[in-house]
Each structure stands twice: as C-alpha cells, then as structure tokens.
What does this fold into?
Amino acid sequence: MPLLLISRSDARARAERHSGSTPRLSDEELMARVRSADAEALGLLFDRYARLVRTVAVRILLDPGEAEDSLQDTFLYIHRKASLFDPLKGPAKAWIVQVAAHRAQDKRSWLMRRGFYAGTETEYLADTIAGATDLEREIGGGIDRAILELAFAELPAEQQRTIEMYYFEGLELREIADKLNCPLGNVRHYYYRGLEKLRKSAFVRMLR
Amino acid sequence: MTPHDDHQPGHRRFIELAALASTGVLTGEERAELRAHLCECAECTEILSQYRMLEARGLPMLAGAFAGETMEPCPDDRISRRRLMESIHAKESAGVERQRAHATRSRTRRPIWRIVAAGIAAVLVVAIAPGVWRDRSRTNHQVEARTRQLYGALAAQRAAETLAESRADAIHRLQIETRRARAESEALRARLQLLQDRVAEQLSVARRNLDSATAEKTAAEERARALRGERDRLSAEYQAASDNTQNLQAELTRLGAEQSELLAQQAALQRRVRELASANRDQERRLADSEQYLSADRDIRELMGARNLYIADVFDVDSSSRTRRPFGRVFYTRGKSLIFYAFDLDRQQGVRTASAFQVWGQKDTAMAGQSKPFNLGILYMDNETSRRWSMHFDDPRTLADIDAVFVTVEPRGGSERPTGKPFLFAMLRKEANHP
It folds into this structure.
C-alpha cells in the first residue's frame, strides 16, 4: 500500500485517539454500533469515508453539488439500513462504497429523467448510461468482481496508482501529475491504458 | 465486445478520448471532436458507455480492496457531518412524534368487538334484503338472472384479463431473469475461460519450469559427478603429496641431523684448523726466529771469525771535553760488512720524538766537502732496556768507497742527504784491531 495512504491512516488513528476517550474501533465494529442506532459511530464512519464516498459520487454524478447530496443520502441510508450489512460477505468499507455507488447511480438516473444534464457539457457522458438498454444495464451489473480485481492487480504500478488517486482519492489528473512529478500527458496515458485494460477484462471477456 | 476492441488505428484515438472524457482534462477541441465522432460511431459510443459503467459500477468494487485507506476529512466534511447529524436527529424526533400520535389514536379507537358486531349486522342486512326484494319483485326475476349472468361474464372476463396480465408480468419477469441468468452465465463462462486460460498458462509455465528444473538437475548431477571425480583425483593427489611430504619431512629431519653433525664436525675442524694455523704461525715464527738467529749467528760467527775486524767505540765530546752520553761501537770488516751499534741516542741534543737516526758513509774526511755522503741506513731500536740502536750494512762495493761513517738526526723516514749536525763520527781506514 502506498506510503502516503499509510501515513494518512496513521494520522487519522492518532486524531481519533486524541479526540475521544474510546480506542480506535474497526469499521465492522462501528457498523455494529450503527445497527444499534449509535449516531456517534456513524459519525466516525463518516469521518473515515466521507471523502471517498464523495469522490465516488462525483465520478458518477459529474456534479459536486449533487455528489454532496448523494453523500448525505448514502450515510442516511447506512444509518437506516445498517442491518443489511453482512460482515461475512466482505469488509465494511467495500459495502459503504457499494452503497455510495448505487445511491449515486439511482440519483443520476433520476436526474437524467428530469433533464438535469440537458445542454451541459457532460450530457453525452451521463446519457451513455441513462440511455442504456435493460440488457446493457444487466451486463453492467454483471461485472465480475474477481475478474476486475485480478485485472487491476495485473496493471503496472503507475497505472494502478493513477486510477487509485483519481477515483478513490479524488485527485484530478493534473494534481496527480504534480504529485507524481511527471507530465500530464504521461498521466493521461496511464489512466487511459489502465481503464482500457479493466474495460476489456470486464466487458470483452464477459461477451466472448 | 465491440468491433473496435481490435484497436483499429482510426478509432484508437477516440477510444482514448472516451476513456478520458469524464476526467476534465480534454481540451475543448478534443471534446468537440469526440462528440462529433460519437454521433456517427455506435461502437465508440458503446465503448464510452462501457467506460462509464466501469466507473459507475466496476471501480467501486475495487474500493474495498484497493482504496480502503481512510483519508483526512476536509472542512467540507465537517459541515457535511453536522448536516448529517442534524438530519438524523430530525428524523429521530419526527419518528418519536409519530409514535406518540399513533399511541394517542390507539387510545381513542373503538373496541374491536364493536366493529365485528357492526360487520355481522351489515352481512345480515345484505343477506335478508334480497329475499324481501324477491317477494316484492318476482316479475323481475328473469331480468335479474340475466343481469347476474352478465356480471358473471364480466367477472370472468376481468379474471381472464388479470390472469393474462399476471402471465405477462410473469413472462416479463422470466425474460428479465433469463437475461440476468444469461449474463451471469456469460460472466461465469468468461471467468471459467479466464481460469482455464490461467490454469493452462500456469501448467505450461510449470511444465517449462519442470523441464528446465530437470535439465538443471541433470546438469547439476553431471557437475556433481565431475566434481566427485575431481575430488577423488585431488584426494589421491593429496594423499600422494601427503606421503611425499612425510618422506621429505623424514629426509629433512635426517638431513638436519646430518647437517648438525657436519656443523659440529666443521666446528671441530675449524677449531683444529685454527689450532694448526696457530701452531703453524708459531712454527713459522720460531722458524723465522731460528733463521734470524741462524743469520745473526752466522753474522756473529762471520764477525767473530773475520781476519780484519775493526772494532771501535765512538764518543763525542762537548766543549768542556766531556764525553757525551751517546756513544757508538762499530764492527767493521773491510770490504764485507759494517755493524753500527749506538747507545743513548735519545740523549742527543735536538732529538724529537719524530726524529730518525740515519747513518751515512763518507769517502774521506779531507775530501768530505767534495764527496757526497752515502746513505747506509737508519738505526733501529735494538734493545729498549739497554737503549741500544743498531744498523747492519753489507754492500761490499759501497763499503769499498767509504772511509768514515757518522750519524745525523733526520726527520722520520730519513733524508736523501744529511741535514742534521753529524755526530758519532768514526774513521774506518784504520788497521784491523781484531784479532
């Protein structure tokens, strides 16, 4: 795991130790408390994953304001439906991001139906999914996690890092270029090549 | 899969632009170019759709595994958090109010037995009323019967429609389920294919590794065999060398002992040589002494036996006619030898440590101023105890030319001609006084 992320995690742990008397709890323990209507536990989860959830929402909704609403909606959903979380099926953070993605997708469909993106620069991007057929939606929903994870693990390090920083850390490609100290053209290439390999793994293999 | 997945060069640029379309790094020109292309190219539109589905549904799947690290909250997060907490509190408050209102309504509701009684009464009214109506309107019976038939038919039609709708819904659901199952089947098949490919690839790699390992093992065994042979050969050589070393060591020990013995013998011989050399030197010295003695003895015998031996004591006198300490004694055999003894020469005036006493021969006193003195030699200390010096001269030709002898004090080593004052002057042209 990149050193940068580890240092952030340590900083967060220190911040939590200093801010409260309770020791640092795991995500799954916090989810259990949220199931018992513990608002403070939800707040701690929010502190840990708000930026990640917001970033995912922005990538899907293509609008920061709507992403902020989606962030609220996601954590309210978690507050209400925490009982749906099953720790045997995976870690809490994966479940939270899945919830965020699904809520953002629903919101984007709702926005599309109301012409939210009409006339905007991103109309053709949002339309690509909203206008997809049922079969394509089913295909999109049938992306295999294991295959995708395998394909991601096989990406070169710089492509992996670029996608992670863009999609999960909320950095723009220009910021990533500054951070990696390399030209924007290279970062564009890393992102394109990485995403293209993932696309082929997810869709081309599925339709073979 | 789209036809462009074979990466047709003309479309590759638009595929890249489609991948980057949502990142905000495309220039206005690139965006316009992509939009124009998407209007004409269904395949690229589909690829763009796949990218978007990947971003919306695929990448979140990776979040748990690859982006699970928490990030520092930003100021916006704190505002959002407050907003979330307020929403939760508001909903909880609203829920409490709803529960309270529900409880109040429950308290004012009629007892259940009253509702049940009212229902039974209504049923009785409905059951009795048609009988009364039948008595009063028997003539309308056929109309009612037809009406009931009509209602029955309508009900049957409605039931059929409902059944058809439910069947249509079921068919639709089945279609969706079928598509989902087909998609899942395709995904599973793709995954299976992928796994099969991977297994085949791993098997191939493992087979290659096995072949390579077998070849390496064979080569290693060959090397080990060669090394064992080499080791045995070296071991034999080592054993031979070791034996040779032991032999050489024994020989060396033996030679060392012999050398020690020889050294001892050599030392003994050297001591013997030194002793013999010393004895030889003593012998030579004694021989030289003997020869010297023999010579001296011969001289003495010659001197003692000479027919015309002239012996004279020579004294010098000072101005007051006293004899001086130095005096000489001359043994002269005409034409044969001259022996000059001198005593107390160091008492002579003007004598220094570095001086020599040189004896000169002269032709005649009368002609002394004309003849050149002959150097007869230097007087050497003969006997230190008696303070005696001596000089022996036996050149007959020179002796024939001289008539007198005298002594001068000269620098060390002597001089070519006399430089000091003559003393101990002795005439030789006299008759022999011995015998």
Remarks:
- Chain A has two domains: 18-131, 143-208.
- DSSP finds eleven helices and no strands in chain A.
- Chain A touches chain B through 91 residues (CB under 8 Å).
